[in-house]
């Protein structure tokens, strides 16, 4: 059963109630009700105060009588005895009944709306934090998402927000996988700013844009350049609304990557290019395709990954770093350095700050030029011995978890 | 008189390496007259001697200790330009002797420091009393100001070129 057919949950959250109480309508209604109460009480007191046999003779009496009447409780311990007083009482009772029904209707419609939004795959944007946003849909989406969860052990399925213009049927099928039940889905175009904003990308730990080749609503299959254009649109929007979140984007036509670079994407995936190169490589009989597969497969004990470098090792020569790093991390072989890792926005901001720290204008210009030409996430394999480890780099390593585990046991 | 002679000798040693006073160092009378206007001031370690952007009216000669020259980037981050040690007896804040413009850098004592301070009013009084002696000093200060102006003009040209290259989309 999909979430669409599940009855809405009526769990009232304190935060939601607060949000409701903060709306303008609530304030205005409350103010109107309070003034009706106070004005009626004051008027009644004026008429009753000096009447024979009256029991509303003080302000406290009048206010008490007013609220008891307004809320149609009617204790009867205080009551007006003059005709004008009784007329006001009638008006107060009537407005009380009307006000109560309006308030009840407002509260129930607010919660009904919330429940309906949830049923439509509504995501509570305000509550998202440190989540993972995945934009676009693929043929084997459930498998892909499960792989993503495998590679990010600290990621809960409920921290995953998926945005894609997909049909109910596809959502239903996706949610039928037990592991993916709690994944949040926004069924809308991921390249539109309003939809992207609902996924709160500015607070996300990462955003990934997939090359979405799924047929459109009219059944048309988008062309490669259409798909890439959407990816670029999404990346551009993200560079605007979520400057500090790292973005990874998949592109079909490698020529389009310059636009992604303009949008400050930190990592670009050339999926089609990868498979073409692998096939070409396999034709040469080098065995590289097998090696790559084994290095990428999460089920394999050996994997290719990057590891952060200790601040104390920054500035060392490459051979020295390799020696120290491998001694500290058993079962790990360093094969290169990934320069300028992280989010391009943050990185550039940092580099510009550093570049300005000179009193010499010539040096300043030189520094700023090198910032401009800086390449993010740039791999350097087996650099020459004189290469020194720059700040903000990570080690590219091949890691054998079995070796690491056995070495740890021995130690 | 012995202490007087030794203090004159000390002043001579202090000022001869400063281009602004080099011209008058060998004139004992002049040195004595100028020396009277200098006041000895001490600064504790980490104490600020002057702050970038603030106006001041004292110029200093470093007698002993070490100073840091700090500047602030447009982003508001502070960085160190240089360390000045007393070996060369640097003369700093001299611009203030001509005009009360804002300080161009922050100067902080890296260790306990002793300085000789000369205020603008005192220098002006000295100039009024001994115009002939003041001339070479003013000449030297003006020269150094012009040198800086030329450097600033060169920097401006450099920035101008870089801006044009940037707009044209060239890398160099």
Describe the structure.
A six-stranded parallel β-sheet of chain A has the order 3-2-1-4-5-6. Chain A has a four-stranded antiparallel β-sheet with strand order 7-10-8-9. Chain A has 15 helices and ten strands. Chain A is elongated. In chain A, helix 5 (141-151) links the parallel strand 1 and strand 2 (160-163). Chain A has helices spanning 14-21, 24-48, 59-70, 83-119, 141-151, 168-175, 193-198, 224-241, 257-262, 271-283, 288-296, 318-328, 344-355, 361-372, 401-410; strands at residues 132-135, 160-163, 184-186, 206-209, 247-250, 267-269, 302-308, 332-339, 378-381, 394-400. The mean pLDDT of chain B is 84. At the A-B interface, helix 14 of A face helix 5 of B.
Question: Which short descriptors sum up this protein?
Answer:
heterodimer; A: 411 residues; alpha/beta; four-stranded antiparallel beta sheet; 10 strands; disordered N terminus; B: 172 residues; alpha+beta; 5 helices; 8 strands; globular
Ordered list of secondary-structure elements with their pairings:
The complex is a heterodimer of chains A (411) and B (172).
Chain A: H1 14-21, H2 24-48, H3 59-70, H4 83-119, E1 132-135, H5 141-151, E2 160-163, H6 168-175, E3 184-186, H7 193-198, E4 206-209, H8 224-241, E5 247-250, H9 257-262, E6 267-269, H10 271-283, H11 288-296, E7 302-308, H12 318-328, E8 332-339, H13 344-355, H14 361-372, E9 378-381, E10 394-400, H15 401-410
Parallel strand pairs in A: 1-2, 1-4, 2-3, 4-5, 5-6
Antiparallel strand pairs in A: 7-10, 8-9, 8-10
Helix pairs in contact in A: 2-3, 2-4, 13-14
Chain B: H1 2-16, H2 19-22, H3 28-35, E1 39-43, E2 48-50, E3 58-64, E4 66-72, E5 78-85, E6 91-92, E7 106-109, E8 113-119, H4 120-129, H5 131-168
Antiparallel strand pairs in B: 1-8, 2-7, 3-6, 3-8, 4-5, 4-7
Helix pairs in contact in B: 4-5
């Amino acid at each position: 059963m999909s979430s669409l057919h599940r009855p809405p949950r009526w769990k009232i959250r304190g935060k939601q109630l607060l949000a409701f109480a903060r709306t303008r309508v609530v304030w205005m209604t409350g103010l109107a009700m309070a003034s009706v109460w106070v004005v009626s009480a004051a008027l009644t007191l004026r008429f009753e105060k000096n009447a024979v046999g009256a029991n509303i003779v003080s302000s406290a009496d009048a206010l008490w009588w007013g609220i008891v009447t307004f809320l149609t409780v009617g204790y009867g311990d205080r009551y007006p005895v003059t005709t004008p007083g009784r007329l006001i009482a009638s008006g107060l009772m009537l407005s009380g009944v009307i006000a109560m029904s309006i308030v009840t209707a407002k509260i129930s419609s607010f919660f009904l709306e919330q429940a309906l939004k949830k049923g439509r795959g509504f995501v509570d944007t305000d509550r998202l934090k440190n989540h993972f946003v995945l934009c676009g849909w693929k043929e084997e989406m459930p498998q892909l998402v499960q792989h993503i969860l495998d590679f990010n052990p600290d990621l809960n399925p409920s921290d995953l927000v998926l945005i894609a213009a997909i049909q109910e049927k596809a959502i239903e099928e996706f949610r039928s996988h037990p592991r993916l039940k709690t994944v949040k889905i926004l069924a809308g175009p991921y390249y539109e700013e309003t939809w992207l904003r609902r996924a709160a990308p500015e607070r996300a730990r990462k955003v990934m844009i997939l090359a979405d080749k799924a047929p459109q609503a009219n059944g048309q299959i988008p062309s490669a350049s259409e798909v890439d254009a959407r990816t670029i649109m999404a990346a551009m929007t993200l560079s605007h609304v979520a400057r500090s979140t790292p973005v990874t984007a998949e592109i079909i036509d490698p020529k389009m990557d310059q636009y992604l670079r303009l949008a400050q994407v930190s990592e670009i995936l050339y999926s089609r290019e990868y498979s073409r190169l692998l096939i070409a490589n396999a034709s040469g009989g080098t065995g590289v395709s097998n090696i790559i597969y084994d290095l990428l497969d999460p089920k394999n004990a050996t994997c290719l990954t990057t590891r952060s470098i200790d601040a104390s090792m920054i500035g060392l020569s490459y051979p020295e770093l390799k020696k120290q790093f491998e001694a500290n991390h058993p079962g790990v072989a360093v094969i290169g350095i990934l320069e300028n890792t992280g989010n391009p926005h943050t990185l550039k901001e940092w580099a510009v700050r550093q570049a300005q720290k000179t009193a010499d204008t010539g040096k300043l210009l030189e520094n700023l030029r090198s910032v401009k030409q800086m390449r993010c996430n740039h791999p350097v394999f087996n650099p020459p011995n004189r290469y020194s480890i720059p700040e903000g780099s990570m080690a590219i390593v091949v890691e054998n978890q079995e070796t690491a585990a056995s070495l740890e046991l021995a130690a | 008189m012995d202490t007087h002679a030794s203090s004159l000798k000390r002043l001579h040693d202090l000022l001869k390496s400063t281009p602004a006073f080099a011209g008058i160092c060998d004139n004992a009378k002049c040195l004595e007259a100028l020396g009277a206007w200098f006041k000895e001031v001490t600064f504790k370690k980490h104490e600020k001697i002057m702050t970038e952007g603030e106006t001041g009216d004292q110029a200093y000669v470093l007698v002993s200790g070490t100073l840091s020259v700090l500047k602030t980037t447009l982003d508001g981050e502070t960085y160190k330009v240089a360390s000045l040690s007393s070996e060369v007896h640097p003369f700093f804040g001299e611009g203030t002797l001509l005009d009360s413009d804002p300080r161009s850098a922050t100067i902080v004592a890296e260790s306990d420091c002793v300085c000789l301070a000369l205020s603008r009013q005192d220098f002006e009084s000295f100039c009024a009393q001994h115009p002939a002696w003041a001339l070479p000093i003013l000449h030297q200060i003006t020269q150094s100001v012009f040198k800086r102006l030329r450097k600033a003009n060169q920097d401006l040209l450099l920035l101008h070129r870089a801006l044009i290259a940037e707009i044209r989309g060239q890398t160099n």
